[in-house]
Amino acid sequence: MNNIKQDFTIKDLENISGIKAHTIRIWEKRYNLLEPQRTNTNIRYYSHKNLQKLLNVVLLTKNNFKISKIAKMSDEEIYQNSRDVAFKEGLNDEAINSFKLSMLQFDKILFNETYNRLLEVKTFKEIFKEIFIPFLNYIGLLWQTDTVLPAHEHFISNLISQKIHINTENLEQKNLSSEKTYVLFLPENEIHELGLLYLNFELVNKGYNTIYLGQNLPLNNLNIFFNHEMKLCFVTSLTVQPYDDKVEEYFKELETILSGTKHEFVAIGRKTELVKHNTYNFNVSFFNTVTDVLNDI
To answer: Please, which pLDDT band fits residue 105 given cuts at 50, 70 and 90?
Structure first.
């Protein structure tokens, strides 16, 4: 298929690799490390092969290889040495680099090969916390600098969500606690659900019963649960929605719905800072991150 982003500027390489453009230029000039093409106006642009080589070079330099020594290696030697280092020292770094390439090239096979290799030495929880979370934070930075498109973010997010769903389904085969049921959902027009999906996995892993409602839920739908005798804890995550000037209104509506009930409510995300100091007539707790919630349970 024709990838949406086939060529990269030197600024893209800087954002993706973490190596300053000035340093990349020095490596080109002094060591002939990369061979960029040039536009008619003499602006450098780089291929996926250039990007992959640079990421492997960065991995080696982080593991005490001198750039002068790397420059004398063939492309195949750089590739093999980076893989050797990855398995011995820098598996996390190498995996994140592979996930970057998978995202930029829409390469599902590379994503799954990298993930399966990680599973040989790590649990799913370790992969998510040590690799997926830093990787997702990094994607956020790339998105802000226009290095990646929403299509890239959606592609990789869907692949990660599939892994969360699979691991959650495997856990749900065991007996779960009836002490409390967690009902997880996102506000209307909110689509960033990886954090909530992972929280659902962790809750199931701890033995709790969960009802996962997913994206874009109108608040009046919560009423359907009030006829049950279950002890409920509603959980939502606010990343983009509601907009900042609507957050207070959102919690006022929640207060109208939950006031007089014994159910709990947990709100996660930076937007909670806008309302967490208000007084509400229902049992609500505010947390900045999913990790904070898990530490409290």
So the answer is: confident
